[in-house]
Amino acid sequence: MMFSRRDLDRLNGILAEAARREIMPRFRKLGAGEVREKAAPGDLVTEADEAAERFIFAELERAFPGALLVGEEAATRDPAVLARLADAELAFVIDPVDGTLNFASDLPLFAVMAAALVRGEAAGAVIHDPLLDDSALALRGEGAWLQDPAGMSRELRVGGPVAAASMNGMASWQYFPEPMRSALPARFPAFASVASLRCCGQEYRLAAAGRCDFLLYGGLNPWDHAPGVLLFSEAGGHARMLDGGHYRPGQPSTGLLCAPDPESWQAIRTALTG
Fold this sequence. Notes:
- This protein has 2 domains: 151 residues, Fructose-1,6-Bisphosphatase, Chain A, domain 1, CATH 3.30.540; 110 residues, D-Maltodextrin-Binding Protein, domain 2 (3-Layer(aba) Sandwich).
- 31% of the residues lie in helices and 27% in strands.
- The strands form 3 sheets. The protein has a 7-stranded mixed beta sheet, sandwiched between helices. A 5-stranded mixed beta sheet has the order 11-10-12-14-13, sandwiched between helices.
- Strand 10, helix 5 and strand 11 form a beta-alpha-beta unit.
- The mean pLDDT is 95.
């Protein structure tokens, strides 16, 4: 099965409409009881997350009948659905509000993300910025680009290699298991700066545009990383697990490093792990 440019445009349109209808009208207007904590401290869900996911599901069911739909909130209720991703002819993984903590904190830094998977492999990706109303898009084998609401686009390309001491990175070190969780921050002075936007969708957009040198992630939920890894890879980047293997959406794994090229990837990995 092929996932075409036309299919990608339909997916992008659905996410953009969800942002306009369900997310932005609730931004900075959440009332009492409209923000709830999930299992882990600081892991939030809001009315915007749930309403946007319902809207996206309904539209995808109409546009792609029979496709497997895996959203962050639905998978929280039924984690067993993740096991079906590898064998599905066509599946979509959806993060209705990536950066929910930012959204709930009235911080204008969040995204709507989705990837189309064909037999377990990411074929198309959308990372939509609801405030700017533009989207970072990628189609396997056809590159990555930033597209505005009028349809104007420009190519996305990762930056060139630089020395580790001059690199700026984004790292979600807190999701690594111990002892690596405690050890990683001590390695960060090897770089010019290491930060976190608390929104991997915006971090992937930044890196795919060449404005960030590397990304490091511990926990790898498919709705967070299937869109981002495809976007980054199609922008010319090198994304691998810390053991050197390829990222596989939906498979239990920890430790993803994204860099501009294989040599930079190895230099960053050495600086982080010794």
